[in-house]
Batch of 2 targets.
Target 1
Amino acid sequence: MRGYRVTGPSLARPREDGDCKHEAFSTEAKIGRITEGDGGPVVDYMLDVRVHCTQCGRPFAFKGLPVGLDFAGATMSVDGLEGHFAIYPAKRGPAS
């Protein structure tokens, strides 16, 4: 994706960003496989994403998403710093 760089967690420490232009970003993404019971078949997948500025270390918050968890949509954590997104393998279509 143009303009995006995907990397692992940053070692940068947050600092005051009064003069930071937030021009470089890092994302941390995790994919969870949701199973039907312990060891059961996978029934859903969730993508959890965090974003922060690599120049000053300040985390970015998601906006416009409801708080919570929804296996058929998008939500965010209570503090807004993590986005949760229901995903699925494109060839099979969404799980219902």
Target 2
Amino acid sequence: MIPTTKHNENSFHFNFPLTISRWPAPSRRARRLYTKFLPAVIDAAADKSPELKKKYQARVDGLLAQDENRWIKGLSSQEAEALKKSYKERYNQ
């Protein structure tokens, strides 16, 4: 189904089922970036030379080490316990 647009003087929106939304798209892009694209970059660099592989592996590792990308590694057991405790306190459970 191709989305169509409806327009009147007060609104402008797409006419498509509610199951299709914009929210899943960024998460799919992020998943592909981290699980397919970045490893493919390293593999392509490895095909050229070992030095190039090391260079791009270091760049990717530096990217993944940034605070913005900490979510990839998940929570440590201590962080998970602290989160559970804060939820129990917050919601009185």
